[in-house]
Input
Amino acid sequence: MATLRVLSDQDVRKCIDIKGTLTAVEKAYVAKSSGLAHLYPVIDEKLHNDKAEFDIKSGDWLEQEIIGAKLVNWFGDNSAKGLDTIVGLSMLFDSNTGYPLALINASYITSMRTGASGAIAAKYLAKPDAKVAVVIGTGNQALFQIAFLISALPTIQNIYIFNPRSFDKAQKFTADVSQRLKIVIEDQIDPENKLWNRRVQAINFLASADIEKALEVADVVITATPSRGSLIIKESIGPGVHINCMGADSVGKQEIDEELFSTARVFTDDLSQSISLGECQTALRKGLLNSNQIIELGDVINGVYLGRESENQVTIFDGTGISLQDISVGKLALDVAIYKNLGQVVNL
Output
């Protein structure tokens, strides 16, 4: 009889950590670049006057004998109700038989794989001596962008936090962020998080009321908002800055000045998604960027293209979020769950 393993949110948290997720997402980029894994078309629907979204992202990684799909919701008003803003389910199937293997709570995987995506981009594209990051946004994803950034870039020392609507929210996030980061496990072989706690304590977190002043000293800028308009202007970005745009994942979203694309070197996780629903969409529509100028990050990791070409070059990563990230991290969670005998096995 066929069986299905069901993993709850708590199960998933016991199975994945920062380091393992970084490795899984980077492997997904390499597999896509090498033609060993494929994305299927995204379904992206708006709800409640754009205050919510329902997405389906799917694909296959036949080398790993996996087909996967994630159904995920973003409900922006949930935070005011004390609920998670991102909720969803992932399913993994055996690519040889089509039989389902796992049904997984996708909330934590989504947060973790998105954090990993931004950190991997910064690892390959930011200046090697980057010390100062500016994070725009104080939602759930901001926490994971920070967690993965400081794990992947040991040179980061100072992080400015800016909320475009509320300095109070920036202050509250900054006051709590160290304690919240300590809950995330960096490495399963250090379950008490001793090394991770020292890394977190070494970071200087600062709430910013003036984004222009913060950007003056930035080496890395991360935007993680649902914005539909530019939050920073081109003139605010100095030479050599790397920008991770992590919030634009559907038609109409925008976080940075489209004029930045006219002179920056531009990268993404998937070209077709970047063109249709990523941060690049506005610049492309206005003729400030050609699609043939956009490089997929997997091709940089695989050595097909160079990443940063000079110390003063501005680089942009358009992180739209791809199904292979979910499939790879979901497969990691399933493998660990089987080893640890976690979750519930259900007869089909």
Observations:
- The mean pLDDT is 96.
- The two ends are 7 Å apart (CA to CA).
- Residues 1 and 38 are 30 Å apart (CA to CA).
